[in-house]
Specification:
Blueprint lengths: L7 E2 L7 E3 L1 H15 L6 E7 L11 E3 L25 E10 L2 H6 L2 H18 L1 H4 L7 E8 L4 E11 L6 E7 H4 L2 H16 L8 E6 L5 E4 L13 E7 L11 H13 L3 E7 L1 E2 L2 E2 L5 E6 L15 E4 L9 E4 L6 H16 L9 H5 L2 E5 L3 H12 L4 E5 L27 H12 L4 E5 L15 H16 L3 E4 L8 H10 L2 E7 L3 E6 L34 H4 L7 H17 L30 E5 L4 E5 L12 H10 L1 H9 L3 H6 L1 H18 L11
Parallel strand pairs: 2-4, 5-6, 11-12, 18-19, 18-21, 19-20, 21-22
Antiparallel strand pairs: 1-8, 3-5, 6-7, 7-16, 7-17, 8-15, 9-10, 9-11, 12-15, 13-14, 22-23, 23-24, 24-25
Helix pairs in contact: 10-15, 12-13, 13-16, 16-17
């Protein structure tokens, strides 16, 4: 862009506004619960930042925190934290009327002049030098129709006008104005200013460049100390505008301050703009403006004319937004919950399949420490259909570690965990489709009396139907044998199955491989939870002391294992081979982490808190597995519930069926032969 060589009137790019839905939601709540018919002006806070894109200007933004909270008793001012580089706070005032007629009848000229006078007063008293953000104060008028969830509003950004107007004698890209040494130093100084929590959100500043081309950024209150030091001096400001030929709106009142306080006629200014969070002198502008003001500007009582009502599509009219669909709290919760996931797709994870996640039906077997954490993690990833199965009740020891329960759930004998968990999930996120099933899982090694066989078989059929109607199953129970039947049923129907199991300070998280009849692919299947066992699951609850009866683990273990279990599911859903994907190992040259956006997809993750370590392993399926082998699945397909009942009542049946009994005999025989053959004389021994 060539610099301006002849004088022309400075044309400022007007501020633009954007209002987050959360602002209207809090205003509605504030109106309903606290303000009532009180239409007194409300102090609010807007936020803006320097332009960060060569084709898009930044807006002054209103968020939920722009308004004071309902519980604020000492002050009605919105509480805002300072030091956020992307949120420079700007004071504003809100006039919210009670009727649409009152909104249209507001004296807009008087309201604008009243805010302009505040700026004028701040300039003359010196407040604007100490807190330069007041130079950009704004005004908002509104009417909230809470019956129709419709909001009428209009912004004004008061600006003092020069008579005659300020003229521009030079405007060029900052990279063309500074020498290479100066540009490097100015960029570094501005970045340092922006990265400091003390100055990141201070929008007006001085740039001083010494004869050695070294730049320093200072507060504008230091202007007097910078005089007569031989340094090049520029008045800088955070410019929200992206246009190459127009400085942004904040410069108007900044020039007024400079003219009144320091009586300068020529002002060299820097329109500071950024790219990816760093100073961009190719986007920033440096210009020189000439200011001629009347003698009346020295008089505090002489208020200049002001302008600043925001235009709507080129017209001086208010705006209207209808939030009838999104303003319902449940819908707003959905919008807020989806926001983070949608932002992931902007840059970090463009291939994130939100539809696959939201349509996934997940069955959680166990609503204890693991089940509670997994349910919450699933919701955070956008899963909306969650079914929890558990037969236990909430005990007094549960709420501290099981995050979905409170003391109220423990009273009167305790509510069923499956029921209480669903209520808690609905309170956390009303849009979740959660269901609780109170049911015990039939287990091998726990023989069933004849009079209870019908009930147990009914539970088996019910579990079969639940697994059949869901897309993914999490095995989160606290005994080994309770995972056997779900593993078998999942292998039979080829469901995504994920196991999480805890020790005192160790954990296992794994995904089960595909079922034995799921594919003609000759590659080795990944194993299930039982594939590495050489004995059938038996009763592990009998003859146990109190510490063995309870799930005694380090408190931090369950959240870690639960998070990894859910991440495994997300990885499976985003892998092109899905449930058939090979197991990958961390730091392996054969892993596909460089190809998959979510990284590797391991088979097993084993971790230890005592060592603060974690490793990924791969284990293939076993032909002798008591849960997922073709022998067991075939037997179940042929005999159905009769087979399950026999497996439950006869502890050695599964070992006999799968050949584990013969395998153990052969191992014992081999050990015996080895002992005989190695019974050597001392003279035959060799010391190593």
């Amino acid at each position: 862009m060539a610099g301006h060589n002849s004088e022309s009137i400075v044309v400022f790019a007007q501020f633009q506004s954007v209002v987050d839905e959360g602002f209207w939601h809090r205003l509605s709540s504030l109106k309903l619960n606290k303000l009532g018919i009180d239409d007194s002006p409300i102090p609010i806070t807007g936020f803006y930042a320097p332009c960060s894109h060569p084709q898009v200007s930044n807006h002054l933004t209103l968020l939920a925190e722009s308004l004071p909270s309902e519980s604020s008793e000492e002050s009605s001012t919105a509480a805002t934290s300072r030091g956020n580089r992307n949120r420079c706070p700007v004071p504003g005032i809100l006039y919210n009327t009670n009727t649409i007629e009152s909104f249209h009848a507001l004296d807009k000229r008087s309201l604008l002049n009243a805010e302009a006078k505040k700026i004028w007063d701040d300039i003359h008293t010196g407040k604007a030098v100490e807190d330069s953000a007041v130079l950009s104060r704004f005004l908002l008028i509104s009417f909230a129709d809470l019956k129709k969830w419709t909001f009428h509003y209009w912004f004004a950004f008061p600006a003092l006008t020069f008579d005659p107007p300020a003229t521009l004698v030079d405007l060029r890209r900052a990279s063309q104005y500074f020498s290479l040494e100066e540009a490097k130093s100015v960029s570094a100084a501005c970045n340092e200013w922006r990265n400091s929590s003390l100055t990141a959100d201070v929008p007006f500043f001085l740039v001083s460049i010494d004869p050695n081309s070294q730049a320093t950024v200072k507060h504008i209150k230091d202007w007097e100390t910078c005089q007569n030091d031989g340094h090049k001096l520029l008045f800088g400001f955070y410019d929200p505008c992206h246009l190459p030929n127009n400085p942004g709106w904040p410069l108007r009142n900044f020039l007024a301050l400079i003219s009144v306080r320091w009586n300068l006629k020529s002002v060299r200014f820097l329109c500071y703009r950024e790219n990816r969070g760093f100073a961009d002198l190719g986007l920033s502008l440096v210009g020189e403006a000439l200011i001629t003001v009347s003698q009346g500007w020295k008089d505090h009582q002489c208020l200049p004319n002001a302008l600043g009502w925001e235009q709507n599509k080129g017209r001086q009219v208010s705006r209207c937004i209808s939030l009838a669909k999104s303003m319902d709290p449940t819908r707003l919760a959905v919008s807020a919950a989806d926001l983070n996931l949608k932002l992931m797709r902007w840059r970090a994870l463009p291939s994130l399949n939100l539809n696959a996640l939201s349509s996934m039906k997940c069955l959680l077997l166990g609503a204890g420490t693991l089940g509670c954490q997994v349910a919450r993690m699933l919701m955070a990833w956008g899963v909306r259909k969650i079914t929890l199965v558990d037969s236990g009740r909430v005990a007094m020891s549960n709420p501290l570690r099981q995050s979905l329960y409170t003391l109220d759930d423990c009273l009167n004998g305790g509510e069923y965990k499956a029921t209480a968990a669903v209520k808690s999930l609905s309170r956390i996120f009303p849009a979740v489709d959660a269901e609780g099933v109170v049911m015990a899982i039939p287990m091998p090694g726990h023989p069933v009396p004849s009079q209870e066989e019908d009930n147990v078989l009914e539970d088996c059929r019910r579990l079969h139907d639940l697994i059949d109607s869901h897309d993914a199953v999490f095995l989160l129970t606290d005994t080994r044998e309770s995972r056997w039947l779900p593993t078998l049923l999942c292998a039979n129907t080829n469901k995504i199955t994920i196991t999480a199991a805890l020790g005192f300070d160790s954990f296992l998280v794994m995904r089960h491989g595909a079922g034995p009849f799921s594919s003609n692919d000759e590659r080795k299947r990944l194993g299930c939870y039982f594939c590495s066992d050489v004995v059938a699951p038996i009763d592990s609850t009998a003859n146990r002391t109190l510490d063995q009866q309870c799930t005694v683990t380090r408190p931090g273990l369950a959240p870690i294992a639960s998070a990894l279990a859910v991440e495994l599911l997300v990885g499976i859903l985003h892998h092109p081979q899905g449930i058939f994907a090979d197991g990958e190992v961390a730091n392996s040259s054969s892993s596909g982490s460089s190809e998959q956006p979510l990284g590797i997809l391991p088979h097993q993750i084993r971790g230890s808190l005592s060592q603060f370590s974690q490793m990924t392993l791969v284990g293939h399926s076993s032909n002798n597995c008591t849960a997922c082998s073709s022998t067991v699945v075939s037997e179940y397909q042929e005999r159905g519930m009769e087979f399950i009942l026999q497996a439950i009542n006869h502890p050695t049946y599964l070992e006999d069926l799968t050949g584990l009994t013969e395998l153990m005999k052969s191992v014992s025989s081999f050990q015996l032969d080895w002992d005989i053959e190695t019974d050597l004389d001392d003279d035959d021994c060799v010391e190593i």
